[in-house]
Amino acid sequence: DTAVSQTPKYLVTQMGNDKSIKCEQNLGHDTMYWYKQDSKKFLKIMFSYNNKELIINETVPNRFSPKSPDKAHLNLHINSLELGDSAVYFCASSPGPRGTETQYFGPGTRLLVL
Amino acid sequence: AQTVTQSQPEMSVQEAETVTLSCTYDTSESNYYLFWYKQPPSRQMILVIRQEAYKQQNATENRFSVNFQKAAKSFSLKISDSQLGDTAMYFCAFTLLYNQGGKLIFGQGTELSVKP
Fold first, then answer.
1. pLDDT digits over B65-108, tens only?
2. What are the DSSP calls for chain A, one per residue?
3. Are B103 and A40 in contact (CB < 8 Å)?
4. What Cα–Cα distance (Å) separates residue B87 from each residue in B22, B39, B82, B93?
5. Are strands B10-14 and B110-115 parallel, antiparallel or unpaired?
6. How many other C-beta atoms lie within 10 A of the C-beta of residue A70?
7. Nearest to B100 by CA among A114, A22, A87, A103
8. Residue B26 to residues A106, B39, B48, B95, B111: CA-CA distances in angstroms?
């Protein structure tokens, strides 16, 4: 059973398009995250949700809009895609939002904007 | 603001030997956690080991152990009896215990190659 899953795994699209990445966790966790890994493999948090409420928005452009329909899902919608959005996007989840909780990562979605 | 620095972009080690990956961090807080994550070519992020800052004893997980020096703000990872499957990117990460929404701050990563 996959604990944290993401779809799609690969996404190739043109500049200016709108795309969504879906994330689901079956661990019963309350907290979910989106991280971005750039071409130099640097990982940085984008958003954190706890019980469907946004608790971290790490100065991400408002073209990025996360949505959490329920505790098990956190989707990422990106409007007007730009070349610089090309990256690997990781979803993660943890039992709660405290530092004591280990985060479990999904397999990542590689986005390529042409 | 907290920062994490990994000063070794790449390292290599012979199979069965021991290797140590370095990590330093900067924070004015006293309650935090430190982690090492492994990212093999499959891209999956896998937790290797974690250390609570309030614990003086260094964490160990089988062949993986850490040398946690709180005063020096240093958190190195030692891999003993290296195996080919240890080839991966290794990330050091930091999180505050409270009021951060679980935010993990990562270092730049160290790419480890284990050679036969």
1. 999 999 999 999 999 999 999 999 999 999 988 766 778 999 99
2. --SEEEE-SEEEE-TT--EEEEEEE-S--SEEEEEEE-TT--EEEEEEEETTEEEEE-S--TTEEEEEEETTEEEEEE-S--GGG-EEEEEEEESSSSTTSPPEE---EEEEE-
3. no
4. 16, 9, 9, 19
5. parallel
6. 9
7. A103
8. 28, 23, 21, 11, 22
Pull the structure tokens for residue B107: 């270092």
| B30: DSSP letter | S
Name which of A74, A103, A109, A110 to mutate to probe chain B: the one with the most chain B Cβ atoms within 10 A of its Cβ.
A103
What is the chain B residue with the closest CA to A48?
Answer: B101
How many angstroms away from the CA of A26 is the closest CA of chain B? 17
| Mean pLDDT on A95-113 | 90
Confidence category of residue A82, pLDDT binned at 50, 70, 90: very high
Chain B residue numbers touching A92 (CB-CB < 8 A): 45
Q: What is the mean pLDDT of chain B?
A: 93
